[in-house]
User: What shape does this take?
Amino acid sequence: MATSTSIRPLSRLIDKAADPFWVIGPDGKLAYLSGSVGDWLSIEPEMLVGRSCVAGASISDDPLDFLAASLAPPPGISNRGSASLLVQPSMTGKRARQFTAMETRFVKLGHREDAIVLAVAGQFNDAGYDGDVELARLLRQRVDTWRRHHSDVASLVMLGDSKVAIRLRRQLKLAGELRSDVLIESPPGCLEEAIARTIHDRSAPSEPVVVVEGSLMDAELLDASLGPILHHLADGKNASVILRDMDATVVEAQQRLIDHLETHGDRLRLIGLTSITHLTTDDDTDPDSQDETIANQVVDRLQDRFCGLRLRLNSLAARIKDVPLIATSLLDRRRATGEGNADRFSSAALDALVLYPWPDNFRELDQAIRHAIRAARHSAIAPEDLPLAIRSYQPTVVSTESEPIDLDQVVADFERQLILSTVESADGNRAEAARRLNISRARLLRKLESYSL
Assistant: This one.
């Protein structure tokens, strides 16, 4: 075994070198950083020793933890033994800063749980080509670029290059710049409450906020739930309320909430969350459904509060292009907390993730990755590591040999029959028929007029 006297000369030689050099221990933490690293990052190297150096979100809000994580090796290092990566160190928070990017060679020493990784910044080129590893590297690079600007959970919903992601980023930017009432309509599992909190934190970070479960509220319980911020409002200060399941809130509670909103004016801001069951394409083309998603569940005076900002979240099935990036980001977060050793997906596993429809959206995707990273026995997650429902999913194939079906006509005929039978069962009372059909009376009248009735 090497003694301290034989190590010291090596340490002095490394510290004299102009190129940054660091060592990552078997536990994934920084064990040594040369003096050149300190010159590169403008800090004392000892400040990073012992911090986690695993790709993904930092383990705390400490900017130095984020800086240490940005020095992590690329995917595939455990199998390949060596790899190169353009390392872009960065810090977040009040000390937010980016440092000069440097091409870095990572070399693994040892085997299995005793392996350490040496890193030297310089000019290198990897020999050979592995398609899966290259794909994982490119995905990780894009995710890291995104993470330098977005560190909260809600940012996962905005991650990607699809039209849906781009539109949502613009909407959230606007909502974060204005202190205004906001309505968020979302399919299940789309992190809508995290988005609501992000909007609040960006637009009014110092303002108290209370979260209310609308489906459980009556008028008296609503008053009790709003108690903390009502005292704040009585002192002439601002406050916000996030109302879950607004469309499931009883009318009496909605009326009491309206009373509070009108009493305190703009000082009380409302962020409402409602449920929608579809939106699986980039654009919802039915104008009636757009206008009447919550028409029958929320009273008019409360709906009028959201004439300005109204966000619609789309399902993952509408964002196939974004799934690999979102999945990679979730994998990074899991691995950074020590849940497993897998650091990337195989191409076949990514294909399975893209193919699956994700009925429970982001929540289901996160659960699937938690299952996969715990089941994976290698550094790359394979299809067999995914939950059974995902790896065995087969899309429905419509036979082209059968007679063609006019889907629009079939749907129109069924709708007409349903509407007419409902009006008849309501003894011709069109308001009652509209209630039973869960549509507005105006929409029912338009439908009946189109049937020449």
Summary: The first helix runs from residue 4 to 16. Residues 80 and 172 are 41 Å apart (CA to CA). The chain is about 45% helix and 15% strand.
